[in-house]
Description:
There is one protein chain. The protein is α/β, with parallel strands linked by helices. It folds into two domains: 6-178, Rossmann fold; 182-291, 6-phosphogluconate dehydrogenase C-terminal like domain (6-phosphogluconate dehydrogenase C-terminal fold), CATH 1.10.3660. Helices cover 53% and strands 13% of the residues. It is built from twelve helices and nine strands. It starts with 5 loop residues before the first strand and ends with a helix. The site of NADP nicotinamide-adenine-dinucleotide phosphate has 29 residues, from helix 1, strand 7 and helix 10.
Amino acid sequence: MTEPIFQRLTLIGMGLIGSSLSRRAKQSGAIAREVVACDLSADACERVRLLGIAHHVEPDAALAVQGADGVVLCVPVGVLGEVAARIMPHLAPGAILSDVGSTKQSMLREIEPILRRDVALVPGHPLAGTEYSGPDAGFSTLFENRWCLLTPPDGTDRGAVARIGAMWVACGARVREMDAAHHDRVLAIVSHLPHLLAFTICGTADDLADETRGEVLEFAASGFRDFTRIAASDPVMWRDIFLNNREALLEMLARFTEDAQAMARAIRWGDDAFIVDKIERGRAIRRSLIELNQA
Ligand code: NAP
């Protein structure tokens, strides 16, 4: 059998993403000889032990990374810097440090200044997820046929980038490299703004008078129901994403607000061609997603 990509892979944060990666790595054998799971929460560690989805469970991050040639941070983006600072002195020389965080410039801002010269940093972001969190929410096929974006800073060791890429390919994902700033702009429109809209629309519905609110829940048509699924996502994770991708998200929100105003104007003045054109463009995007197998 060919050698696995890592001898010892440590995953810090055993939520939806960390536990999915752990399950896949433990099942496949091609990713790592040993998988070490670490989480701040004693409950999460206990669940990982009971589920048997890692070879070892170590709650102390400094101990968990010892001897690991690969470390992936799977914690909310708001604590990435703090966790990286905690483990940095304990990383093995030559180790590769990666993450799965949804914002990439903030990650580089936090970690590059404290990065050891003998450690390679390969930031990553798998575009896969559900509205559930915690170790029980994960599943080994989560990343299949999904993209994983890597944003290595200039000068990163190419061998390290190739190994993190190979790890995601072994999870069934497709890998693409891009610049961190570009990543944050793209994700602001395809993921962060839709979540902002979902949280806002659910908040608006909840603010309505009691009687109407009851009816919103009782008669929720598919449009509102789809928003509630997105709005069920983890509050800590999404607070951190909004605050760590502030510039790109506010820029996309400003553009969206202008476009929404244009739609409002078309409705007010009965501009049916404008309205139909917008709806046609939405339908075309949906068809393209289905054709690309991303629906
Ligand atoms: P999650 O299910 O909430 O899991 C995060 C885990 O990290 C929790 O078990 C949490 O423990 C633990 N944690 C928090 N602070 C920690 C620390 N200082 N040290 C060790 N463990 C710590 O979240 P997730 O959905 O897996 O998201 C994890 C990362 O993946 C985030 O950066 C997110 O941006 C990214 N991501 C998420 C998705 C998605 O759709 N969910 C998709 C792509 C990328 P507690 O529960 O005790 O806080």
